[in-house]
Amino acid sequence: MKYAEPLIINKDEQSTVRPRKTGSLKGIGFVYVLVLLLLWGGLVYGGFYFSKQYLDKTINNIQQTNALNIQEIKERMESLTNEMIALKSELSNTDQTLSSSSSIQAQLNQKIDLLDRQLKNLEKSLQILKEAPNARR
Amino acid sequence: MRAVNLLAVFVITPFLGLWLACNSFTGYAQDLLLPVERVNIPLHALEKSLTLLEQEMGAVKAQADEQKTKYEEHEQSLSSLTEQASQQKTMSDQIYEERILAMLGSPVKVHKSSRVEIKVFKLEELGYRGYIAKVKLFNPKAFKVVLAKDTLGQKETTLEAVKRTGALLGINGGGFYTEMREGKPYSVHIGNVVINGKLITPFNAYPGNLCFAGVNRSGGVIGGIMSKKEQLMALNPWQGVSFIPVLIKGGAIHPIPAEWAKTNQPRTILGEYANGDLIMIVVDGRQADWSSGVTLERLIEKLVELGVKEAYNLDGGGSSAFVYGGKVLNKPSDGKLRPVVTNIVVMP
């Protein structure tokens, strides 16, 4: 039976053992750091997610509001356009009526001149008739 | 533990910043909204203006429509009045025509074409007879003064002139005399003769009562004592001859020389009714069993009775001739037609 050799630990060995203890501590530290990093990463992602949602929602609301406003303005503009078209049509009709009136007025003046001539002719004819001879029979 | 807290602070701090940024973005986001209110104000004003404009436009159109309707009504009224005036004039003209015809009796000859209407009547009064032609000229060119054989110095009868020119009606024209030139008789018209708007010889300013009688370019009878060429040309003469005297001018009896007033003679007259119809009268004379002739005084009375408003005495005596349709209707005092220098003819 061999006895176990006495544990002799030289300085070199001591230095070999001590790093084993420090390495496990480092491992624990690494894990902590890793956990913290993961936590930080999760928070960053959460923050990103929350911010993105918030900004998207806000911008979306603005877009919808703007779209609704634009729609309303568009409808009002269309309404105005229709009214202006109707106005243009009415203006055109009025213009035609006025042109027609103007034409009729010109005809009216011609008719007045014609009537004037006819009346003068009639006056002359009646004057002639007034001086016509009276038959004895 | 301190390290953990410190780390926690470091970790949370960016989120705090992020939260602050998000909060500030809410305010900034409001600026991203379109400035609708700023558009709304002018848009509303525009809508209001447009509505007002529409209302005013409607009022203007209604007014224009009303005006147009009124114009149309006036036009119809004027048309109706014009038509009535025209009808009344036609009726008045017809009544005048009927009255003239009632005075003249029934026509013995009638001709109507696109340029002339001729009605020939017998004239039978106490002591004298003759013929009357009432001529309605639609084209003044149907009325012509014809120089004998179309040559100065010549003579021809009214019948020859009518046949030569293809006329339907003819009466003798102005006065003339005959002189000897180079041993040959040369007939000269007295006063002025206008054919187709031109004097056939230089203007003759013969003093006294010698008068011009003819028609203007419109076919109306013109005449009077002409002392200057300008005076004659101002009447725009188309055809005309000269003799003596003026009988009726402008509806008024013209004073006539005493030596012309009281003697019964064959007469030739050119006159006009108030409606523009021409009247040509030839009275026979110097034939006791047929017609003794008429004094100008009596003839004027007859003309006034007939309603003649303008009348001029032309060459009478043996020259008086009335030709219609190629036949001499009257009875010339010489027993035959006398060749004369000028004749008046009316084309069919």
Describe this structure in words.
The complex is a heterodimer of chains A (about 140) and B (about 350). With about 140 residues, chain A is mainly α. Chain A has one helix spanning about 10-130. The model of chain A has no long low-confidence stretch (mean pLDDT about 80). With about 350 residues, chain B is α+β, with helices and mostly antiparallel strands. Chain B has two domains: about 40-105; about 110-345, no CATH class. Helices cover about 35% and strands about 30% of the residues of chain B. Chain B is built from six helices and 20 strands. An eight-stranded antiparallel β-sheet of chain B has the order 1-2-3-16-15-17-13-14, with helices on one face. A five-stranded antiparallel β-sheet of chain B has the order 4-20-5-18-19, with helices on one face. In chain B, strand 10 (about 210-215) and strand 11 (about 220-225) form a beta hairpin. Chain B is rod-shaped, with a radius of gyration of 46 Å. In chain B, about 35% of the residues are buried. At the A-B interface, helix 1 of A face helix 1 and helix 2 of B.
Question: How would you briefly describe this protein structure?
Answer:
The complex is a heterodimer of chains A (137) and B (348). Chain A has one helix and no strands. By secondary structure, chain A is mainly α.
CA distance, first residue to last residue of chain B: 147 Å
Mean pLDDT figure of chain B: 92
Number of E-state strands of chain A: 0
What gap, in angstroms, lies between the N and C termini of chain A? 197 Å
Secondary-structure element string of chain A: H
| Count of helical regions of chain B | 6
Rg of chain B is 46 Å
The biggest beta sheet of chain B reads: 8 strands, antiparallel
Query: Shape of chain A, please?
Result: rod-shaped
Helical content class of chain A: over 70%
Count of distinct structural domains of chain B? 2
